[in-house]
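Schema walkthrough. Field components (list of strings):
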Amino acid sequence: GEDVEQSLFLSVREGDSSVINCTYTDSSSTYLYWYKQEPGAGLQLLTYIFSNMDMKQDQRLTVLLNKKDKHLSLRIADTQTGDSAIYFCAETPLWNQGGKLIFGQGTELSVKP
Amino acid sequence: GAVVSQHPSWVICKSGTSVKIECRSLDFQATTMFWYRQFPKQSLMLMATSNEGSKATYEQGVEKDKFLINHASLTLSTLTVTSAHPEDSSFYICSARGGGSDTEAFFGQGTRLTVV
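Field assembly_structure (string):
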């Protein structure tokens, strides 16, 4: 079955870069996503990457995909206190015609001033 | 991005009563809606997938008679927690997709259910 794993916590200082890592097991994944969840709120899509790409950059966000190792990372440059939240990676396996998302358990990012 | 509105944002109910949560797509037609449950400090667990006009597909281990899902129109899906018990207390989140699996799914803000 499919499985998505993330480290649970990350603490950085304001202005530093944050790197949040994710591993997945399903090699047929078509799309991989990063979502942000602030306390008591729903999920906000930050960025996504198609499985035939290695890297995607969007302003302060850089997504790296190592398909061989099934490893996905999200780098946030110049991390701000407003970036403090829980970050989820998610995948959509190829076989999943319904398009449901398989989520990791989330990484809580704490940004200290 | 498109807007998905969930209502209510929070609800407290007594054990044994039923609670209905609404999920509306405000500016697009949602052909598929998903209902998730999230426990504190944990990931989202998919409960069911619903397509407009057809019966919902429930994930393994989710009681369909307890969590009733209706997707009667292209802009509204409802989740009814029947005969709620304290263990049903959780954060419920819906998401809606307007097209195929390669289109973005937009999430509602979630509903905090507390059963006392």
